[in-house]
Amino acid sequence: MTTTPSDFIRDIIDADLASGKHSQVVTRFPPEPNGYMHIGHAKAVCLSFGLALQYKGRCNLRFDDTNPAKEDQEYVDSIAADIKWLGFDLGEGPLFASDYFDTMYEIAEKLIGEGKAYVCDLSDEQTREYRGSLQEAGKESPRRNQSPAENLDLFRKMRAGDFPDGSYVLRAKIDMAASNMKMRDPLLYRIRHDHHDRTGDTWPIYPMYDFAHPLEDALEGITHSLCTLEFENNRELYNWIVANSGLPGKPEQTEFARLALGYTIMSKRKLLQLVEQNLVSGWDDPRMPTIAGMRRRGYRAEAIVRFCDLIGVSKNNSTVDIGKLEYAVRDDLNSVAPRVMAVLEPIKLTITGYPEGKSESISAPYFPPDIGKPGERDLSFSNNLYIEASDFAETPTKGFRRLAPGRWIRLRHAYCVRCDEVIKDEAGKVVEVRCSYDPNSLGENGPAGEKVWGVIHWVDSKTSLAAEVRIYDRLFKSERPGAGDDFLDHLNPDSLSRYSAQVEASIGTAEADTKIRYQFERQGYFIEDNVDSKPGALVFNRTIGLRDSWVKSKTVTTSEAPEIKTAQSSRAATRPKSRTKADIRQSARKHDSALSERFARYQSEGLSEGDSDLLSGASEWGDRLEALVAAGLSFSDAAKWLINEQPREDDLPIEFASPVSEFPALLAALESRISSSKARKIWKELAQKKGSAEALIKAIEADRIDDGDSLAPIVAKIMSDNSDKVTTYRGGKEALFGFFVGQVMRAAKGKASAKLVKDVLLRMLNEKGDAQ
RNA sequence: UGGGGAGUCAUCCAAUGGCAGGAUAACCGGCUUUGAAUCGGUUUAUGGAGGUUCGAAUCCUCUCUCCCCAACCA
Predict the structure, then answer these.
(1) Residues 6+ away with beta carbon under 8 Å from A615
(2) Considering chain A, what percentage of its residues have pLDDT values greater than 70?
(3) Which of A479, A650, A671, A765 is most exposed, with the fewest beta carbons within 10 Å of its own?
(4) Position with higher pLDDT, A721 vs A56
(5) What is the dihedral of CA A350, A356, A357, A358, to 10 degrees?
(6) Residues with Cβ within 8 Å of residue A17, at least 6 apart in sequence
(7) pLDDT, tens digit, for every residue of A377-410?
(8) Which ipTM score applies to this complex?
């Protein structure tokens, strides 16, 4: 159904497996049980559980229940149920962070003993104040250098419950001046005399996320700990905790972009608000983006999983078009939902020529031929039917392909009828249309010589069942309801409409397994509501409407108010510019006269100001430049290499040792003997393995195809293998030249010189073209 | 003393120095007893400016925009 996705996370895993860093993949999904799962969580679940499935590893569902104030058993149950429903295996059941509280406590004591953590009694306002700001370093707590013994004593008293909430905390002793705010002596434990759902009253202290989470991962042998982008800053602390925990596990955190969906709110806090203020009927209201809501609305797990495949995984902060979800849902339901008929806004259709009291049974398939599924039901037909009010127009507009006075239309699966008469109520509303019918039109045939304008659905008023049908529209009117001041302002007042519908009789007697979901033909996919529907009082939810190019063509430009970019957060607005690399180089020169001397000298040697700036920003650059020049290279060649071609040391392994002594030989060969890309390759090799540049250059030269005659057959083969592309190229698509170069290079295993390849290709591509 | 991330069709995701590709959306057409499905076709993108290279979305420099971090939340 779907191809195996590939993304940066899978790349990392593949590399870890290939290098032997890990032999299996263990992931985890760690929700806090403080709300129902929504589609955003589903993305994370599909990722972490999907990875476990794909790599035959394991994924733990672990509840991060470290804050007793907000958490509840109801949420634990619903989350576990939702994940199962999505189709993932919970193994031996969910795990709980609270099960590790003892171990976490021991590790905290160990940290205290090692002088890496201390008990602090600053109030929360003071703590914030002491933390400093984004621009300024923080201040150290007066308790920071307290002895381990004293800290241990205090911490044990915290644990014993001797102190009130908020009086003390345990903090890691890291660095109050760290540029990463998360590293400024983060809190590890706080005092909370709260009842915990699982541990009861045994703990008056609870670990903080940043302390607990890495320990949980390490304890469970998690290899790849995936979380959302906002935790990027926490990674440094995560690694600190893992490294100092003494635990053997070596989990690594990788962040990906959380899901944002248009017209949808994904904040648990805001969803809770909708529930608590009764703006929706509950967490499972079909308009909610929760798994429970979507399930009740009729989405199948398959559709949600498919959607998650469709949107991919990346680090881009993006908002997915809600249409993509709707597509996944329709596409899924199309092949599984039996077709039936239902009339949402009934008006009467009376067939004047059809005998009163007569009733016939028409068999109709549940699926159209292209679905290729068996099954059928019987439709009853009589002279009194209901049709959709919107399927009749007294004065049809252009393009209207439904019933109108004098027009023939087909009643789906049944006869063709012609409208002869329209009956209205006092208000002028059409309540009934009277039609004649063609008794010979039941099967394939239409009325002889008459145009049939279209096909409409109907139900037999004598057998049809009354049902309430609920149509859902998006909960919010604006694409980014969360962006403004109050998201409730964006609530769509028309997100729910109810219809007194008539549905065909077969729905009441259908087998249980066909009964779940239907397509009401020409309208959409529907599901019987699992809460409110009762025999005799049916209730259907519309899962999603069918694509409708008619409605779309009518609704000319919905002219939605253009989205206004929201003002950036006040914090972002006051954020000062940080120093650029250029600033840093400049200030380095200011403090080092040797550098500023170089800056001037390089320019006088003919380098541009920009190049001179780059090469005089730190002493090692100039050192290299001068080594090259001393070896006989011109300033400009040496500068070019250093700036543009020399591999960055960040890209190289730790053991990188700058092979400065090999510079001259390498660079001397650059123009005449090897290409810059080869030189770069050699450079990397030298950095890793040492050896001599000259030897490597010689090896390349010895191996090189350097005459056109031996290249020609390769080129000829590429050309005959890609004759279509040759034609396109000769037709003028010159972008393909790069393709040919690449193909030849690959075929020659990189042994051909690019210049030669280019020459030969150019000659052969054009020559033959002329010959033909 | 600030730091950490991200910029590719309208939207989401690819392209790991070598044909800018897929999906959704849109548009046109075929088929149709669902204005659905399906089939065929079309439109649309590398934030900007320089540089290196035979060849740059990819490497280098500068620049612009957006997101995250200063909860005893996770």
Answers:
(1) A598, A602, A607, A621, A622, A625, A639, A642, A643
(2) 92
(3) A650
(4) A56
(5) -80
(6) A23, A25, A55
(7) 999 999 999 999 999 999 999 899 999 999 999 9
(8) 0.97
Cα separation of A429 and A501, whole Å?
18
Contact yes or no for A322/A262 (Cβ under 8 A): yes
Tokens of A689: 């393995």
Residue A372 has phi, psi (to 5 degrees) of 70, 35
For residue A166, the SS3 value is coil
Mapping DSSP to helix (H, G, I), strand (E, B) and coil, where does residue A651 land? helix
Report whether A507 contacts A519 (CB < 8 A): no
Tell me which nucleotides of strand B come within 7 A of a protein CB: 1-8, 10-20, 22-27, 33-38, 51-56, 59-63, 66-74
What is the spatial distance between Cα A290 and Cα A453, in angstroms, rounded to a whole number? 42
- A268 catalytic? Reply is yes
- Which residue is associated with the tokens 């549940």? A366
Question: Which residue is closest, via its CA, to the C1' of B33?
Answer: A412
Active site annotation includes A258: yes
In the 293-312 stretch of chain A, whose C-beta falls under 7 Å of nucleic acid strand B? 310-312
User: Of residues A10, A131, A268, A640, which has the active-site annotation?
Assistant: A268
Would you say residue A223 has pLDDT above 80?
yes
Q: Which of residues 700-729 of A touch strand B (CB under 7 A)?
A: 725
Task: State the Cα–Cα distance between residues A447 and A440, nearest whole angstrom.
Answer: 7
Query: 10 Å Cβ neighbour count for A285?
Result: 21
- Please check the confidence at residue A645 and state whether its pLDDT lies above 80: no
Give tens-digit pLDDT for A436-466: 999 999 987 888 888 999 999 999 999 999 9
Map residue A660 onto helix, strand or coil: helix
Nearest nt to A725, CA vs C1'? B19
What is the CA angle A502-A506-A512, rounded to 5? 115
pLDDT class of A648 with cuts at 50, 70, 90: low
Nucleotide nearest to A322 (CA to C1'): B11
Q: Which of A258, A401, A474, A477 is catalytic?
A: A258
> Which A residues 83-122 have CB within 7 Å of strand B?
122
The first and second tokens of residue A244, run together, are 């100092």
**Is A32 a catalytic site residue?**
yes
